[in-house]
Amino acid sequence: MIIEETEFKMKDGRTAVIRSPRDEDIPGLLEYLVISAGETDFILRYPEECDKYNAEAEKAFIDRLNASETGAMLVCIVDGKLAGNCEINWSNRIKTGHRASIGIALLKEYWGQGIGTRLFREMIRIAESNERLTQMELEFIEGNSRARALYEKMGFRITGMRPNAIRLKDGTLLNEYTMIREIKR
Length: 185
Known about the structure:
Aminopeptidase
């Protein structure tokens, strides 16, 4: 699904652009995957696990999402640099087609600038425009209080917990929480 470009002012006054990814974004996306994975333990990959990503695979991924009728990826560009992205997906299955799964991540230098809120608003708009969807779902890792606060601000509530779902390199085990936002029309 292609999402048209929109601009907004970040809290620091700079202009940010949200849109579907394009081929010219591929180098920035590949760099973003590695950097974001090294900035926090709350992303489900380590930087060294990003070596499986390459330009050809990323292009195929972007092309598939942009052509999809059951999902979309959005990127946020600030001063020509990829600041973050999000994704929303759902199925065509009868039993689970009412549920949209979402994910979001931002580079640390862009935290607190309103980008996460704007990306969520766009994902909510996409979900609300699909009459089949009745809820949005996501997960967050124990200790990620910034993400939890954003999710709750956007109307999500905790519905469950997977104990010891995440294992860090040092052996620390962290719980993963599931959240749902019901879609209101």
